[in-house]
Amino acid sequence: MRFSSETSSDGVREQLFTLGEIPGVLWTPAGAAGTRPLILMGHGGGRHKKDPGILARARRFVAECGFAVTAVDVPGHGDRPMDEEFNRIATENQARVAAGEELAPLIAGFQALVARRTVPEWRTVLDAVQELDHVGAGPVGYWGVSLGCGLGVPFVADEPRVRAAVLGLGGALASAEAAARITVPVEFLVQWDDERVPRADGLALFDALASAEKTLHANPGKHGEIPGFELDSTLRFFTRHLG
Amino acid sequence: MRFSSETSSDGVREQLFTLGEIPGVLWTPAGAAGTRPLILMGHGGGRHKKDPGILARARRFVAECGFAVTAVDVPGHGDRPMDEEFNRIATENQARVAAGEELAPLIAGFQALVARRTVPEWRTVLDAVQELDHVGAGPVGYWGVSLGCGLGVPFVADEPRVRAAVLGLGGALASAEAAARITVPVEFLVQWDDERVPRADGLALFDALASAEKTLHANPGKHGEIPGFELDSTLRFFTRHLG
Do B232 and A233 touch (CB under 8 A)? Predict the structure, then answer.
């Protein structure tokens, strides 16, 4: 794990790192030492580890809860080189949608493919980040919607360190089998007028989760229009389960 | 409006009253004077104005938010005389369910009938309670699930003083038409394994609400098993919209 830069503002320390070929970022409370809860965040499709939606949430997790937060670029995203295989499939999928195929199953297949790479990558990120003195081996949470849900469901299912997860904007097509192995508390976000994930498919993914405590929050609006008050809820959810 | 008793405990003043033939209860912060938000609560079927589920929520609305809260007995419930017509219909419905008819449409029809009585009753309760010096004409909220949703949807639709409502455990069969006239913010509770309200019918009622801000919270469990953390969310919801 190699740190390449460090900045600090408004009480939040930000460290950029690379772990092997994976570029990542770690946010912690400025000046903090000792073990604390850690949240791994998965970004959306076409986005990256410092996407505004990731950054805004990460800063609040750190500043208001004292958590550590880490995010890394998914293959083919952010500071990572274009991935030949993923790129070819994305191009093919665009052509198939243009030819009239349904979007949701194509997204689902693509996310399942990418997850085979990201699940082991994210594990090594957890291993490395939890070695740091200012993070330590505390309870782990996962936050990810859209692509971050498609990749997050198999990760949360397979990673016993994760004790609570916020997921959403994803459907059962890609993830129902892995969802049925998730037993930790989940807060699950659905956009009622999602133009990318059919409503029934989102509800079916919530339904597939084996968690005894799972809570579905659905709000009007399109895929990208999660209302601001849901972040308040997310903070309380993680505080309840990791704090 | 005639007050028959007054007690006070843990900072919450409780006044029992009758308004015409309607027995009611009013909770306010002990020693409080002046205008404050008012929440009208509708109890469940077979329950009453001081049902434990009503009482626990009302005390928190008063103690933590400084609100006034009022609840009255629905006709045929609590301290009100048995209602011949409602009693006859309830008995008939039991027989029809025993003979194999679906429960949900029968509940829906019954609630629509009762609502024709409770909507005007609840209006007069608001009128009277808002005349009191320690309540005043502040913003009004409505809370009601199950029967309290079936009766609450037409009330919220028709009563312009209501600025925000928590509803749930109800279905579209009874209330879709009235729901389409509701435009205030709604937090809507669904129990994912509700044995009385079919899941699709509950989701359809949420869908029917015309509110620009509406948020669906669904949790595993049966009709009566709303998890405790939803009350925390309800407090924040009312604080956001009435506070």
Answer: no
**Using CB atoms, which residue from A214, A219, A236 is nearest to B220?**
A214
B89 within some domain: no
pLDDT of residue A243: 87
B180 occurs within a structural domain: yes
The verdict on residue B91 lying in a domain is: no
Contact A216 B218 (CB under 8 A): yes
Facing A216 at nearest CB: one of B214, B217, B236:
B217
Q: Which residue of A has its CA nearest to B228?
A: A213
Mutate: best of B209, B215, B219, B225, partner A, most A CBs <10 A: B215
Domain, as residue range, for B231: 2-80+108-238
Total domains, chain B = 1
E strands within chain B?
Answer: 2-9, 12-19, 22-29, 38-42, 68-72, 140-145, 162-168, 186-191, 214-219
3-state secondary structure of B138: coil
Which distant-in-sequence residues (6+ apart) come within 8 Å of A79 by Cβ? A23, A48, A49, A73
Residue B87: count of CB within 10 angstroms of its CB: 11
Q: What is the mean pLDDT of each run of 10 residues along chain A (243 residues)?
A: 96 98 98 96 96 97 98 96 91 93 88 94 98 97 97 97 97 90 98 95 97 98 96 97 94
Q: Residue B129 belongs to a domain with what CATH number?
A: 3.40.50.1820
* A216/B219 touch (CB, cutoff 8 Å), yes or no: yes
Of A211, A216, A232, the CB nearest to B216: A216
Cα nearest neighbour of A213 on chain B: B220
User: Does residue B177 belong to any structural domain of this protein?
Assistant: yes
The answer to whether residues B170 and B194 touch, using CB atoms and an 8 Å cutoff, is no
Strands A12-19 and A2-9: antiparallel
Please tell me the distance from the alpha carbon of residue A151 to that of residue B243, in angstroms, as a whole number.
40
Per residue of chain B (243 residues), give pLDDT as tens.
Answer: 999 999 999 999 999 999 999 999 999 999 999 999 999 999 999 999 999 999 999 999 999 999 999 999 999 999 999 989 988 998 999 999 999 998 888 888 899 999 999 999 999 999 999 999 999 999 999 999 999 999 999 999 999 999 999 999 999 887 889 999 999 999 999 999 999 899 999 999 999 999 999 999 999 999 999 999 999 999 999 999 998
Asked if the Cβ–Cβ distance from A203 to B203 is below 8 Å, we say yes
pTM of the model: 0.93
Determine whether the interchain pair A216/B214 forms a contact, defined as Cβ–Cβ distance below 8 Å: no
Give the pair of three-digit tokens for residue A120. Answer: 């082991």
